[in-house]
């Protein structure tokens, strides 16, 4: 049951949206709204907060989900129960596409050991805190095992090359956890692209998720989810506000759907 039933773009919105929603709603199918959302503490990974409403139809439930910037909705027609998941977590106002929710238990981690690139690293006592330290499989925040951008570098960035285009559902980030530097982890964008980009201008990549922060240890690992999946070969992470706060990534795990056999 790994099939994504259908995908539609904003272009065809007015024409086909209503009929598509009715088809799904009749089966009480959970519908994912393909929109950019905030990264969340992994402490509450798969269970998005739910709100229940009464709506007269699946279309109205979908419209409510759009208005309340929810991530997913389910309309149960016989009791007119409209359940929204992740209300308020959607960042963008326009849904990019809607998909029947794919199962998330068929994902594999695809970033470990892959080639990385990043803005100039920080050097501490002759040790270079290079970009590859964020995919070395070690996600314990200890001294000097993370990527750390150089001082006085605005919009620091990091990227991993998966070597193939994959459909990405989750990017899990381990931030630096020592108390000196927690506040540095904020205003981060996760993007997905298909071409190698070394200029630090990642605007051609698709925005996958955002993380406002600032980070706090109680958040544990940060999970950035796109339940609709975004395809690409490069995953980038960048600070997008101009403070001189460096970018420090202990580990980045990227979860993609399994390749068909
Ligand atoms: C909608 O369904 C949920 C469980 O799926 C339930 O907890 C909630 O009370 C229902 N709401 C209404 C208004 O029936
Ligand atoms: C970044 O690249 C885009 C094209 O991909 C371009 O339109 C934009 O001006 C660039 N921004 C900067 C700050 O160079």
UniProtKB/TrEMBL annotation:
Domain Fucolectin tachylectin-4 pentraxin-1 intervals: 107-261
Record-stated family: Belongs to the fucolectin family.
Record note on quaternary structure: Homotrimer.
Keywords linked to the UniProt accession: Calcium, Disulfide bond, Lectin, Membrane, Metal-binding, Transmembrane, Transmembrane helix
GO molecular function: fucose binding; metal ion binding
The name this protein goes by in its record: Pentraxin fusion protein-like
Biological role: Acts as a defensive agent. Recognizes blood group fucosylated oligosaccharides including A, B, H and Lewis B-type antigens. Does not recognize Lewis A antigen and has low affinity for monovalent haptens.
Methyltransferase in keyword set: no
């Amino acid at each position: 049951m790994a099939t994504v039933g259908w995908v539609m773009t904003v272009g065809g919105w007015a024409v086909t949206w209503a009929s598509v929603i009715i088809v799904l709603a009749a089966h009480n199918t959970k519908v994912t709204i393909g929109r950019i959302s905030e990264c969340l503490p992994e402490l509450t990974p798969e269970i998005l907060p739910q709100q229940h409403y009464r709506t007269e139809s699946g279309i109205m439930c979908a419209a409510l989900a759009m208005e309340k910037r929810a991530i997913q909705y389910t309309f149960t027609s016989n009791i007119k129960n409209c359940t929204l998941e992740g209300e308020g977590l959607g960042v963008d106002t326009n849904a990019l596409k809607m998909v029947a929710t794919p199962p998330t238990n068929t994902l594999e981690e695809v970033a470990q050991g892959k080639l990385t690139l990043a803005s100039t690293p920080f050097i501490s006592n002759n040790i270079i805190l290079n970009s590859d330290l964020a995919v070395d499989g070690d996600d314990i925040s200890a001294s000097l095992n993370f990527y750390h951008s150089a001082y006085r570098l605005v919009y620091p960035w990091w990227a991993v090359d998966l070597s193939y285009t994959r459909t990405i559902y989750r990017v899990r980030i381990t931030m630096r956890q020592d108390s000196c530097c927690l506040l540095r982890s904020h205003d981060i964008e996760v993007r997905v692209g298909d071409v190698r980009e070394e200029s630090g201008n990642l605007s051609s990549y698709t925005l996958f998720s955002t993380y406002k922060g600032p980070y706090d240890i109680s958040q544990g690992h940060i999970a950035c989810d796109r339940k609709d999946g975004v395809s690409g070969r490069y995953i980038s992470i960048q600070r997008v506000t101009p403070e001189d706060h460096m970018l420090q990534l202990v580990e980045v795990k990227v979860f993609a759907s399994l390749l068909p056999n």
